[in-house]
Amino acid sequence: MTKSLNVFDRVPLRLASRASQLAMCQAELVKRKLAPIATEIQPITTHGDRVLDRSLADAGGKGLFIKELEKAILAGASDAAIHSMKDMETNFAPGTEIAAVLPREDRRDALLGGYESLADLPQGAVIGTSSVRRRALLLHHRPDLQIKLLRGNVIRRIGLLEAGDYDAIILAVAGLKRLGLDVAYSPLSSDEMPTAAAQGALAVQIASPTNERARSVSAAFAEMNCPIATAEVTAERAVLAHLDGSCHTPIAASAKYSDDGMISLDGMILRPYGEAAHRRQIVGSADDAANLGVELGASLLTDAGGRDFLA
């Protein structure tokens, strides 16, 4: 590690991050974990951050938050990129790899607006979200709700709620906790609102090590990786990959590791407006996480009668 430290004394380890407040907070978290390695954060405003007038699916998918950071890594302008892993499609840039998955934060969804549950929402309430999964789940439980597009950073979204544009909004508990915001919210049960694959997980993406600096970068993150979180998100992302790795299909996937080395995997697919849904659970060895995700994805497709069910 001494040699690695010397490499970064000459040119600090450069972390590419989206420029949003939450993304920068997450990058700072990684920077603190890298100490005493000299590190600098490079904020990048991605296309996904600039386009706010349509859903992520309509604007081009999850890659809108990722591709510009990947380009910075591949060009050698950055050494690593810090991502909310749920924003990553199942396929990412060739020549890159995941160096670490950090210990997971609370993966649940949060209801903001002064209501404790979906049942408490008034008839016809206007709910803000940009997630196709959240929209489908909300309408699956409450077809009377009006789902209205909500894009932008966390602070902007909360501001629109407070301005009265929405009766309630759905955000990730993980983001609220990482930002340390003093805002009231009610975590939603995973029984009612199963979560997105890799929700609450941070990933460090690097260029595949082919030279001394890249190998030093890889080594710097090695001890940061959480095997439990890695096993969980591997299973969840395998469900996505088998079904539809984009953000166009309402898919929930959540794996939970147990002390006996097993993981329980919960998956759900829905029609775009929640008019039909299929859900299954499976248990298997964490060492076989990827195959477990494929098995669950295949079972869901069988239950749904094939791929025509997918949006």
Note down, in words, how this protein is organized.
This protein has 311 residues and is of the alpha/beta class. It has three domains: 126 residues, Periplasmic binding protein-like II (D-Maltodextrin-Binding Protein, domain 2, 3-Layer(aba) Sandwich); 79 residues, Periplasmic binding protein-like II (D-Maltodextrin-Binding Protein, domain 2), CATH 3.40.190; 73 residues, Porphobilinogen deaminase, C-terminal domain (Double Stranded RNA Binding Domain, 2-Layer Sandwich), CATH 3.30.160.40. It contains eleven helices and 13 strands. The strands form three sheets. Strands 2-1-3-10-4 form a five-stranded mixed beta sheet, sandwiched between helices. It has a five-stranded mixed beta sheet with strand order 7-6-8-5-9, sandwiched between helices. A hairpin with a 6-residue loop joins β12 and β13. α1 packs across α9 and α10 runs parallel beside α11. It is globular. The mean pLDDT is 92.
Outline of the structure:
The chain is an alpha/beta fold.
Question: Architecture of the largest domain, according to CATH?
Answer: 3-Layer(aba) Sandwich
Largest β-sheet summary: 5 strands, mixed
Number of separate strands: 13
**What general outline do the C-alpha atoms trace?**
globular
CATH class of the largest domain: Alpha Beta
- The oligomeric status of these chains comes to single chain
- CATH homologous superfamily (4th level) name of the largest domain: Periplasmic binding protein-like II
Using the coordinates shown, work out and report the CATH topology of the largest domain: D-Maltodextrin-Binding Protein, domain 2
Helix content: 25-40%
* Radius of gyration, CA atoms, in whole angstroms: 20 Å
Element order: H for helix, E for strand: HEHEHHHEEEEHEHEHEEHHEEEH
Mean pLDDT: 92
Taken as a percent bin, the fraction of beta residues is: 15-25%
What is the number of helices?
A: 11
* Backbone structural class: alpha/beta
